[in-house]
Queue: 2 jobs
Job 1
Amino acid sequence: MTKQVYNPQRLIAFFGWPGVGKTTLAHSLLDRIAACILNKDSIAMPMTQDVEGELYKKVVGPGSYGALWNLSRDNLSHGQSVVLESPFHNLLRGEVDANLEKISRETASPLKLICCVAPNELVRDRMIRRGEPRDAPKLDNWDAYVAKTHIYKVTVPHLKIDTSIPMNESVQSILDYLNSN
């Protein structure tokens, strides 16, 4: 199958709470489009799994986002579409992400935001199945975690995808969105 190449290149950001299926969906999209993928966890997790610790909060978290911005800018400035995958908590809380908008402007790359959601029970099952140490505190206090985090106040234009629907339907919806103005 020939992959879709975008001209101009696209900056595509998948966001949503942990366990909603961002990574799986982003990788499925890459079967259909020519783009590189940049995943915040791929940058951060080799440094520490303790996402609640001071090292993560003060160094690893901000540094991994800095790496995402620099790698995105490098790829986009050479005509390569970029798929970013990260929670982007600020978007979920109704804030604009100035870094995404700045990179989009600087590289003349249309910004396409994709908010991934899933039923809480499915998210919990996914976290249990993947068995990542970073999910243990969430699973141990599931009700408190959901009450604190699973809030969606997204105010910027975006496509919302429920990852509990069949993958081929989700990918087709994303392709339609990427091809829209």
Note: The chain has one domain: 11-178.
Job 2
Amino acid sequence: MPTRTPTTNEAAPKEPPAISPEIIPPQVQSALRTLGVDPSAPNIIAAVEFSMMFGGPIPPPSLLAEYNKVIPGLAEKIVGWTEQQRDHRQGLERQQVAASQQRLGRGQIIGGGVAFFGLALAAIVGIFGNPWTAGIIAIVSVGGPTAAVAMAIAFGRRPKPTAPDSEKLPKKPKPPPGETAT
């Protein structure tokens, strides 16, 4: 049977890529060799996956140096981006704290105004001969905002209680009647 040569429209079969030290790190290559695996085999190159994790916003110095080898100045850009993100986040936190303080101050002013208006209304009603109604209005006008503040503190800012870990575990089923638990 004659062998066929590829035409210009057909691609010649490709040889598997030669292993490069950058594909599989030397530590992984030596570990593969100790297990009796040839790290230069094409199927091994395709099967090995290498991942790296680090904590914090900036990669470790060795990785930054590798970035600089690929694109000069990239490490400085990464550090600059991290600093910009930090400044942005801190600015948002400052705005949030300032807005919260304004909201609290506004709430106290409105609560004081409601209480003052209620007391003034109670005084007017009391002057015109309805002391019981005046007393009820005074209690509601002073007690209402006070109760609202107390409820906001008690229910609004306290974290919801969570069950201890032992309560989250499934309970053992009870044995059928007549059997003893082991």
Note: Residues 74-127 form the longest helix (54 residues).
